[in-house]
Amino acid sequence: MTVRSSFVVVANRLPVDEITTSEGRQWRPSPGGLVTALHPVLAQYRGTWVGWSGGVGEAPEPFDLEGIRLHPVPLSADELERYYEGQSNATIWPLYHDAVETPVFKRRWREAYRTVNARFAEAAAEVAAEGATVWVQDYQLQLVPAMLRELRPDLRIGFFLHIPFPPIELFMQMPLRAEVLRGLLGADLVGFQQRLAAQNFVRLARHLLGLRYEGQTIIVDGRRVKAGAFPISIDVAEMERMAADPQVQARAKQIRAELGDPKTVVLGVDRLDYTKGIERRLKAFRELLADGKLSVPDAVMVQVATPSRERVEHYQALRVKVEREVGRINGEFGRVGVPAVHYLHQSYSRSELAALYCAADVMMVTPLRDGMNLVAKEYVASRADTGGALVLSEFAGAATELRQAFLCNPHDPDGVKDALLRAVHVDKVEARRRMRIMQRHLRAHDVGQWARSFLNELGVPEAT
Ligand code: GDG
């Protein structure tokens, strides 16, 4: 019998990974910001999380893990290719990120997106109790709110978009545009990372569907749909704890030693994604070496580029470009035993990342467009010693909050070089002052506060 919940989260992925142990197949929680933020609410309301389990073919039976009910939705290999890699990651992802790569439009991808969104909506309708709250997450599931409302008009529905919402001119390119907009308008509350994104959405509703709005509220068939900005954050206390761990501190020292104890360690940590501006950052570093403003071995760079979406063409092409640039820099400026750039196309544990953050004098976060960018917030939270300096793109959502970073326009190579040099040479007192202000901000705006403020606006009683 299906267990029905008064609080349901719907996201592309379940917050678990399947592992094979000596006892057979098992589930292991995959800790992420979203599950940390939602765990208290899910636990209080005996909530259910609806999502894809990560394997193709038949879905596993629903199961409980750490107090949360998990309800897997199946995807076939074809759907994975069309709905996920295609429509989600080769159409919508680039389009919503200022088309920094050319979006690819394909009919069969759109059809699969519709089919899979309908499946998620049906699963949510099945597990939601009468009058329940359902919180739908992100760009893979934009049709779900309207589909779900059609099936279950009794529900309270929220939607949060983790990535930017583009200006009208760009959104209008999408063949599925009206359907996506109507899909989102099925929610009672549509949340974005930025105020500008919420404004884009409200204006689009008028432009494309001729809908009336009052402030940030759109009127749809007499129903009121609110749009708003809810900038996401991280579990600040957990990040601070991890960074303060003596083992992490010792590992940070060891990393610096392994790098040859340079004066300046410059760090980048990103999924290998073309929105993250990895090439621009490498180019800025190369030009500073060529200009003689930085030199090896005094300054070295570490770039972690976590493998991501490897079957999507844009990503394969990016990998080639990044690796060519790394090769060029090391060829020109490295020495035997001392590369200029340590490039790591690998995934690391959370504690290894924390150690890298603690080891870095300058953190470079230079996306061409980013909904928020949690790496920037993690770096700031991990520097309780108030050491370090953050170079941050103005095009990351995080730049709205982290005003004391060395802000730059990633499209302007001289601007990036200038910000990097200022961060390298900032005096300690000034660097500390900047870090302290940003840390204070983050402590008051962590991921728990993010979830609470969204759910309060949606009218869900506060979780205890
Ligand atoms: C989307 C939006 C928005 C990275 N490498 C490893 C690893 N990571 C972790 C980081 C960070 C997370 O992944 C990446 O988060 P970002 O925010 O930087 O970027 P997206 O993945 O693009 O996320 C973004 C976010 O949604 C939330 O709303 O901020 O704008 O694009 O937490 O630490 N974690 C581990 N190993 C790695 O190698 N364990």
UniProtKB/TrEMBL annotation:
One family name in Pfam for this protein: Glyco_transf_20
The organism's place on the tree of life at top rank: Bacteria
SUPFAM superfamilies: UDP-Glycosyltransferase/glycogen phosphorylase
InterPro entries per UniProt: Glyco_trans_20
UniProt similarity note: Belongs to the glycosyltransferase 20 family.
Protein name: Trehalose-6-phosphate synthase
Organism: Phytohabitans aurantiacus
Gene behind this protein: otsA_2
